[in-house]
Amino acid sequence: MATTTVHLLRHGEVHNPDGVLYGRIPGYRLSDRGQQMARRVAQHLSGAGRDVAAVVASPLQRAQETAQPIADAFALDLATDDRLIEAGNRFEGTTIGKNPSQLAHPRYWKLLWNPLRPSWGEAYADQAVRMRAAVDDARRAFAGHEVVLVSHQLPVWLTRRSYEGRRLAHDPRRRQCSLASLTSLTFTDDRFAALHYAEPAADLLLGADPTPGA
C-alpha cells in the first residue's frame, strides 16, 4: 500500500495597505512578513526531512511567491495549476472586508440573497470539486510521496470540510486556515486516511493583515 500526503498550503501575508479584497486581481505580492512566512514553511518541511516530490501553486502572484522557497528547498521546478486559484468573488476590488458596514448599501443586497451557496461568488461546491480534482491528480502522480499545493484560504478550507464529510456552508469567522498554514491530507492508496493541521509560521501571525478573503 502507498501512503501519500498532499499538503494544502495557504499563501503568506500579502502587501495590501488599502485593505482591498483582491481576490483574483493580479499583482498582489507578498509583504516582507509574507516572504518570511514562505521561508519558514520551506524550512519546516525541509528540516523535517519530508519526502516532497512536487510543489504546485495557484497562478496568482502571492501563491507563486509562497511556493518558490519550498521548490528551491527541495530542488524542484515549481508547477502551476489553475484549479488552485482563489474563489471568484463579486466583491473583488472593494474594501468590504475591512469595513463590512458597507454591505448595508442597497447596491449590494442582490448579492446577499443566499449565503449558503454563496450568491456573491463561486459556489462552495464548485470550489471543492476543482480542488479535490487537483488533490487527486497530485496524489496519483506522486503516489508514495508528498506534494505541496499552494492555494488560498477559502478553497483550502472547503477542501478540508469536504474530506471531513462536513457541510460546505460555514461561518467564515471559524475557519482554521491561517496565513502560511498547512492542511495535510494523508491517503492510503486512494483512500483518505487522516488530516493534520499545522502553523509553521504561527509566531509571525501577530500583527499580520487580518483582511479576509485571501
UniProtKB/TrEMBL annotation:
<dbReference type="InterPro" id="IPR050275">
    <property type="entry name" value="PGM_Phosphatase"/>
</dbReference>
<dbReference type="InterPro" id="IPR029033">
    <property type="entry name" value="His_PPase_superfam"/>
</dbReference>
<keyword id="KW-0378">Hydrolase</keyword>
<dbReference type="Pfam" id="PF00300">
    <property type="entry name" value="His_Phos_1"/>
</dbReference>
<dbReference type="InterPro" id="IPR013078">
    <property type="entry name" value="His_Pase_superF_clade-1"/>
</dbReference>
<protein>
    <submittedName>
        <fullName>Histidine phosphatase family protein</fullName>
        <ecNumber>3.1.3.-</ecNumber>
    </submittedName>
</protein>
<dbReference type="GO" id="GO:0016787">
    <property type="term" value="F:hydrolase activity"/>
</dbReference>
